[in-house]
Amino acid sequence: MSAVGSSLDARVDALARELSNWGRWGDADEVGTLNLITTEKRRRAAACVRSGTAISLALELRSDQPQPVGSGRLNPQHMMVETGSDAAVQEAVSAYSDDVLAMSVHAASHWDALSHVFHRGLMYNARSCTEVTSAGARANDIVGYSDRLVTRGVLVDVARHHGVAALAPDHEVTVQELESALAAQCVELEAGDALLVRTGQLGRIAASSDWADFTEVGPRLPLEPGIGLDSLSWLQAMGVAAIACDNWAVEHIHAASERLPVHEVAIVHMGLPLGEIFELDALAEACAGDGHYDFLLSAGPLPIRGGVGGPVNPIAVR
Fold it and tell me: 188-215 burial, b if ≥16 CB within 10 A, otherwise e?
């Protein structure tokens, strides 16, 4: 093992011990920091609805993006099994159309379940990685998220704070930047909030159609602006219930990256759900327009029994 790898292992292990939520909500818990979203928190979130405008934060499901050739994940494949042409040929008085969707669960906008990542053979709440089999996850699956992810959402537009459309691909978003951007937006984080971090990465890639630089392709990780390990202690101190970003993996990925350490600590030890490939540009424009960066967020994933992730159409109601 290289000195760099050994140093990262030590850092991840130390943070895992420091930030562990194992047992915090009981040994049977499978939703981690989503326990911070209470009924009172949802009432507070409802008060953030001012105009009633709803904005979808989901990437459109289509067969040609966002996963490029070699990513190992299947873009949404939409196929018709009954069509209007069939009805016309049959000359039926009453007819219908029907369709099928096939996709990798993590291919488009989605939440990672607490069974998605392992660290030293374990997943969240000290459960063995062997609890995830070819039949799916026997524990920590995505179903527990389905009725939990309705809360106050807060957008932190780091790209706009820097006066750019998108952060540089190798930019690590620091705690200082998060705090500075939130202060400039005149919005405060509260316990139980979902934090949405806009880097501009998805918008940049969509504009250039350079999807090969958006996701992992074979063994190569993309360069990606995002949060680093240093942010996790702050997220826990602020009581953030979930975090989502407009990039592939939420976390900062640099040229020498060989793994995703934020995933290891956040998902496995903190029980912190990560939302990936959220489309935040339209929301950012709306927030900048009226100066309100908090909203009601409804973002429950599809309740896939045994799923280690769940596609989602997050809705921000402002």
Answer: ebbebbbbbbbbbbbbbbbeeeebebbb
- Say how far apart CA 288 and CA 290 lie, in whole Å: 6
Segment 275-280 shows an average pLDDT of: 98
Closest CA to 21 of 304, 265, 277, 214: 265
Report the C-alpha gap between 25 and 237 in whole angstroms: 17
Element (H, E) at 77: strand 77-82
Is this model's pTM higher than 0.70 or not?
A: yes
CB under 8 Å to 77, separation ≥6 — which residues?
63, 101, 102, 103
In CATH terms, the fold of domain 3-74+105-317 is Glucose Oxidase; domain 1 (3.50.30)
Q: Which helix (H) or strand (E) holds 177?
A: helix 175-184
- pLDDT tens across 77-120, in order? 999 999 999 999 998 899 999 999 999 999 999 999 999 999 99
**Domain extents for the chain?**
3-74+105-317
H or E element that contains 58: none
Peptide bond into 222 cis (omega under 30): no
Instruction: Say how far apart CA 112 and CA 244 lie, in whole Å.
Output: 10
Q: What pLDDT shows up at residue 3?
A: 66
Q: Which helix (H) or strand (E) holds 205?
A: helix 201-208
- Give pLDDT, residue 296: 98
